[in-house]
Amino acid sequence: MKLKLAAVAALALTALTGPASAFVFAPVGTSGTAHGYVNLFGPPPHIGCTFDVHWTVDGSGNLSITSAVTSGNSICAATKAAGLPWSATATHARRAVVSGVDFVIPGVTPCGPGSEVLAILGSAVRLEETQISSTCRVWGSVQSTPALTITH
Fold this sequence. Notes:
- Helices cover about 15% and strands about 60% of the residues.
- By secondary structure, it is mainly β.
- It has one domain (about 20-150): Beta Barrel (Porin).
- The protein has a 7-stranded antiparallel beta barrel with strand order 2-3-4-6-7-8-9.
- The radius of gyration is 17 Å and the shape is globular.
């Protein structure tokens, strides 16, 4: 009986919320940039860097991060994004998860690969504090041009 109730509840929840894939990024068929900062917190050094990103949204509403560059000091300048492009999945009207996020800081344990949670509020995109690997947390904020939205 409990199993039946759980199955009915899961079915009702799916019917009310729809599948996660029903969320897509907009504007469709465009590309843009985002500028702000990122913090990489793991084994020393803990660094805060200027962060510049290039992204594209394809004709189906899929978001890809095609370039991610850190700068601001010598450690940030030497830090490289790896495994690009990173793909994003919209999970809610204002939330997304970017997969494959990976930073290589010379002489330090890699920071990633892992998944980073985003909060998207138009042009403001917040990188939620997320443990992307066993040794590294990432968080920050960027301003996107044009603004990103998630539609259902």
